[in-house]
Amino acid sequence: MAGKEANKPDGTGRAVDTLISIVVLGSLWGLSEVVLGSILKTAGVAWRVALLTGLGLGIVGIGAAVLTRRSFATLAAVPVVAVACKQLVVPVLGVSPMCKANSCLAVMLEGVAMAGAVSIAGRRLENSGLARVAAGGSAAAVASIAFFVGGMQLAPCNYLLSFNHPGGLLAFVAAEGLVWAAFSALLFPIGYLAGARVRSVLPQLRARRRMLYYGTSAALVAVSWVGSSLAIAAGA
């Protein structure tokens, strides 16, 4: 028992571990948005945004399982890092932050909605697959509605403007929101289960191989940010 207690991080250690998790997960989300998003766009994949939404919420699912304190604020910080990664277009290409305004808004709304869904579901996520499916699907659906409203005011693209007519919100939800919800209902639970596996090995990794723990975390962040920068410079 004493050995187990010794392996538990103190308050400062938990805060550092939480910060590391936020930065790693947010960076991976940003990488998927920049690199995979560019690949899917080039390939002309129609459900590109839905897949990216599902992957992003799947990454939040990892955090929901891994983080000891999975508060709303903690999970909502993950998309902030992802948005910062997407905004590498500003220093790399010298463009305005508004260049990626709507896509960054979408990521923030998706992450915040998912953080809210996790907070509402609480401990039911640990024992109920149905709760995980419902949390992922409902978060994406809510985010799609919020994005339609906010995106129309921020920097609407031609595609979004095509829904600027009476009944446009319902048409957008039918065309986009339901597909976002379907992918997220699938990928959030998968991310949560993956996070549960990671959580089972993290205590020993932190206690016995801290250099490997910190080194792997730093490498994932570096790969995400450097890879995103190179992809943006190449025209992603």
Amount of helix: over 70%
- Decide which structural class fits the backbone: mainly alpha
Roughly how many Å apart are the termini? 52 Å
Number of helices: 11
User: Secondary-structure element order, as H and E?
Assistant: HHHHHHHHHHH
Per DSSP, what share of the residues sits in E-state strands of 2 or more residues?
Answer: under 5%
Arithmetic mean pLDDT:
91
The radius of gyration computed from the alpha-carbon positions, rounded to a whole number of angstroms, is 18 Å
Largest sheet: none
Can you describe this structure?
The structure is a single chain. α2 crosses α4 (72-86), α3 runs parallel beside α10 (168-208) and α6 (101-121) packs antiparallel against α8 (129-154). The protein has 11 helices and no strands. Residues 1-7 have low confidence and may be disordered. The longest helix is centred in the last third of the chain and has 41 residues, at 168-208. The protein is globular. It has one domain. The N and C termini lie far apart (52 Å). It is mainly α.
Topology (elements, then pairings):
Blueprint: H1 2-7, H2 11-43, H3 48-66, H4 72-86, H5 89-93, H6 101-121, H7 124-127, H8 129-154, H9 158-161, H10 168-208, H11 210-233
Helix pairs in contact: 2-3, 2-4, 2-11, 3-6, 3-10, 4-6, 6-8, 8-10, 10-11
